[in-house]
Amino acid sequence: MGTFSIWHWAIVLLLIGVPVFFAVRSAAKPSQNPESLVGFGGWLMLLAIGQTLSPLRTLADFGNSADGYQQLMTLPNGSLAVYGEVALNLAFLALQLVVLVSMLRRSRRFPQLFLCQWFAIPVVFILDTIWISSILGVPVNKVLAGDALAAPMASFVVTSIWAAYVYKSVRVRNTFTRTNVSAQIASAS
């Protein structure tokens, strides 16, 4: 493993520090007019960044799993196990992209789609575990060996915080009420 250079730290600072700065700045001065809380600002900016990066994380997980997939392919029924896992992960990636597009379009369906994405995290993990266990004939405790449970649990917990935010935030409610932004702009002219 290489060293973490100053440039890596600068990138981490930009990716995390700048959104946190704007979120803290917006929280420091509460709005007198709740209707003015519209758009990707404050904490919603952090959610937007996370939602934008989530499909990239899923793709990176695909890349990291390539060696494991090659090893599984040599086992009896290994190719079936790999194809099933890839199909599950592609379905989850498709859901992430649908949620991202709905967010960027400011669709009123975004909160419900975000909730579906949150529920999909444990569902995909459980289905994948059952699939691998049954296809390869391996006990579930062997499939869940090591820290296999840590990443999905952390992802579910962090996303649960954001799901609560999506349903409690005035900014989210005001931002995701439109079905077609361009039609509203045209009617206002």
TrEMBL record:
<dbReference type="InterPro" id="IPR019690">
    <property type="entry name" value="DUF2569"/>
</dbReference>
<keyword id="KW-1133">Transmembrane helix</keyword>
<feature type="transmembrane region" description="Helical">
    <location>
        <begin position="80"/>
        <end position="101"/>
    </location>
</feature>
<feature type="transmembrane region" description="Helical">
    <location>
        <begin position="148"/>
        <end position="167"/>
    </location>
</feature>
<protein>
    <recommendedName>
        <fullName>DUF2569 family protein</fullName>
    </recommendedName>
</protein>
<keyword id="KW-0472">Membrane</keyword>
<keyword id="KW-0812">Transmembrane</keyword>
<dbReference type="Pfam" id="PF10754">
    <property type="entry name" value="DUF2569"/>
</dbReference>
<feature type="transmembrane region" description="Helical">
    <location>
        <begin position="113"/>
        <end position="136"/>
    </location>
</feature>
<feature type="transmembrane region" description="Helical">
    <location>
        <begin position="6"/>
        <end position="24"/>
    </location>
</feature>
<feature type="transmembrane region" description="Helical">
    <location>
        <begin position="36"/>
        <end position="60"/>
    </location>
</feature>
